[in-house]
Amino acid sequence: MKKILLTGATGAIGAEVLKQLHASNHYSITVLVRDSKKTRKTLKPFDQKINVMYGDITNRDLVNKAVKNQDVVIHLAAIIPTVENNNHELVNRVNVGGTDNIVRSMEAECPKAFLLFSSSIAIYGDRIKNPDIRLSDPPHGLDHDNYSRTKVDAEEIIKSSKLNWCILRLTAIMGIGNHKISGIMFDVPLETPLEIATVRDTARAFVNSIEHKAKLTGRIFNLGGGANCRISYFDFLSRAFYAFGLGKLNFPNYAFAKQNFHCGHYIDGDELEAIIHFRSDDIESYFTRFDESVPRIQRIATIPFAGIIKWFLLKLSAPYKAYKKGDHDKIKFFFGTIEQ
Q1: Number of domain units in the chain
Q2: Quick one: how far is CA 301 from the chain centroid?
């Protein structure tokens, strides 16, 4: 059996990758994860069935041991910061330094192994005015987005390595039960064009890629759900609100940012699908499962309190806080200018 090392195994995508790898019964699986109660709970169903190494990808000695004799490394571990909580030093140390450790250790310990890396649509920047994205588009808008910059830096480390590698630039990934309504939703302009991919399809892409090394090595792909997974953020969030029993998406002006986010449509995304055949979902199948995941009694119980819940949510909106406080720097970031 091929030996697979997986990082980021307790994240939404990583947990699904682990589940699919294990279900295939074709691989010897090692996961490198930080130790915590949550981690142990997530990995409990796989006790005695996988090899678990507890530690951090920023620990070079540990990474050396983890990659030794592996056939494939699926590197998903990363920190995804928010506008309000962006520890640049930590994000750089994990996303860039950790990736460098993976690459250098693989070059030393398993130079013929196949590295699969998850990059992000974030590197393309704000695409509200030009939503059609292609691989040939240069990174854009990185000055304000440390996360996207770390993904660009990590890509460069991988591309300049001596390894067999493939980079998948993930679109907006949507799972069932792992996306909670929170203040982060206000950072995304309502006009944002989305092309989602579900967690299970995204995980399938990484798993299916293992057996297509020859066609994928040395290449970068845009990973999205395709034309049937496209929707505006306003429509997406509106459907989610109704599913939760929260009613209309009726927030005041300046609750949502007007710029400086990412997402768009992957015009060349079908190329990856043609090779590894990972897609099974579309917008309708996603929302069918989404609706089913919200218990009817919860939806009914939420309806009378929808206004109060939305009032509390508004207090979490960074754009609205900036507008109300007259914070000129953040107003410029979120809105450009505002009407007086």
Answers
A1: 1
A2: 31
